[in-house]
Amino acid sequence: MGADSITKKPFFLALIAIVIIAILAGAFWAYSTSGIAVANGDTVKVYYTGKFTNGTVFNTNAGTGEPFEFVVGANQVIPGFDQAVIGMRLNQSKTVVIPVNEAYGPVNPAMIVSVSIDEFVNRTVDVGQTVTETSEDGEQFQGIVTQVNSTNATVDFNSPLAGKTLVFNITVVAIEANSSK
Domain for residue 181, yes or no? Predict the structure, then answer.
């Protein structure tokens, strides 16, 4: 055994130790980031693209750099979106179809009202125009003018997404577990 083999042995042992530590650190990181599943009460950040069933995009934050943050189960999003993220893991993506009753609900005929043209003081009224009304308790509602004739305008105060099945592509990019679990 020469002097070279004696000095090389500690180097190879150190190299092996470094490789083992790197493998263990990588395994720990992979387990810790993928092991957390979204649950009720967690705060999550997601990127999403919302589409109609025909593929038309109605809203997205993908590519904006700013993920959407909400608390799961806190009624901050539609019920179907809440349910869709439960069980997802960090960096997981999925596509979900959310039926009308788990989205914005059916169109409510009581939210479609006929308003006298006289109510639109000093304004012209056109189909497609957005109208804002304030209730007695100060809550504001937005509606869209859907029809106009010489005496009345029909205004739909339903959500524009009411009555529609929605498709969402969702990617979870952050999970903050509920500390009270």
Answer: no
* Distance from C-alpha of 34 to C-alpha of 21, rounded to nearest angstrom: 20
Q: Is residue 76 part of a domain?
A: yes
Same domain, 84 and 50: yes
d(CA 161, CA 43): 25
69 & 101 share domain: yes
DSSP symbol at 118: G
Alpha helices of 35-147 — where are they, by DSSP H?
Answer: 79-85
pLDDT in tens, the chain (181 residues): 555 555 666 666 666 767 677 676 555 555 555 569 999 999 999 999 999 999 999 999 998 889 999 999 999 999 999 999 999 999 999 999 999 999 999 999 999 999 999 988 878 899 999 998 888 999 998 999 999 999 999 999 999 999 999 999 999 999 999 877 5
Claim to verify: residue 126 and residue 74 sit in the same structural domain: no
Neighbours of 32 (CB within 10 A): 10
Containing structural domain, residue 15: 1-34
